[in-house]
Design goal:
Distance between the termini: 107 Å
Largest sheet: 6 strands, antiparallel, barrel
Order of helices and strands: HHEEEEEE
Number of helices: 2
Radius of gyration: 60 Å
Number of strands: 6
């Protein structure tokens, strides 16, 4: 029940009470007013209880109507959501249908391409059969060459045995020379110690005319070895080793062969590098 209905119901109840009181007053003029007053009081109390009961019923009906409205609103929202979801599913199905049509068209194109490919493969098989025949003939020709090469191998085996005999003789000569060198207090490295090895190190420290190098005994460096110093591909100078450890060495810069001041990080090598012009 809406607000207007409630107001009308209240007015009706109020008018009923007014008419009832008027009737009571009219009757009271002809009867005992005390007894009538008690009756009227009881009647008013009864009407008041009836009015409260009716108002309670009206309130319950209003609450029931509000709950029903809320339930209908929720149901409408659910139906709208289901409708929206159904539309989305329809759109998705339409998209999938379009994709399936595209795939069907692509599959048809692929099938056509496969047919053309099969035709090409048939032609290729025919070519391969021709090539196989040619290869078979080549194998027969190569077999003859293999036989000739086998004969050459046998000849080379004979030459190999001759070379092994020569090697054994040289080994005996080397053993004799080693005995002679040991008898005279010489080492095998004495003949090559003065030749610096091929190294590629860097200058780790510079103090006046003395530099520290990142190469040492483990790299074949010995006292007296000379190394060229480069910066990128530009020649800087030359230094001679004066002290050497396992993995580092100390060298003295030759002032007569120094073109630029040596710096930390310069490259040290025995390989000659052409200067950039």
């Amino acid at each position: 029940m809406n607000l207007v209905g409630k107001i009308v119901t209240g007015l009706i109840l109020l008018l009923s009470v007014v008419f009832l009181l008027a009737a009571v007053f009219a009757v009271a003029s002809h009867q005992n007013w005390q007894a009538k007053a008690r009756e009227n009081k009881e009647l008013v109390e009864t009407l008041r209880r009836q009015r409260q009961s009716m108002l309670a019923q009206i309130s319950e009906k209003d609450q029931l109507i509000e709950r029903e409205k809320a339930a209908r609103v929720v149901r409408i929202q659910q139906l709208e959501s289901q409708n929206q979801q159904a539309r989305q599913e329809i759109l998705q199905l339409q998209v999938e249908l379009g994709d399936q049509r595209v795939k069907a068209s692509e599959n048809q194109n692929i099938a056509s391409q496969n047919e053309a490919r099969l035709t090409q493969l048939d032609a290729r098989v025919a070519d391969l059969q021709t090539q196989l025949k040619t290869v078979t003939e080549d194998i027969a020709s190569q077999r003859e060459k293999v036989i000739a090469m086998t004969n050459q191998i046998f000849e080379l085996e004979g030459e190999k045995r001759s070379l092994e005999t020569i090697r054994d003789g040289l080994a005996a000569q080397n053993a004799t020379m080693t005995k002679v060198m040991k008898k005279n207090g010489l080492l095998e490295t004495d003949l090559t110690d003065h030749i610096p090895p091929i190294v590629d190190g860097v200058v780790t420290d510079v103090r006046d005319s003395v530099v520290s190098l990142s190469v040492g005994l483990d790299d074949g460096v010995r006292n007296g070895h000379q190394f060229d110093i480069f910066r990128n591909s530009q020649y800087v100078g030359t230094a001679q080793v004066v002290d050497v450890d396992a993995n580092r060495s100390v060298a003295r810069i030759d002032p007569q062969l120094t073109k630029y001041a040596v710096q930390r990080g310069d490259r040290v090598t025995t390989q000659w590098v052409r200067e950039q012009k």
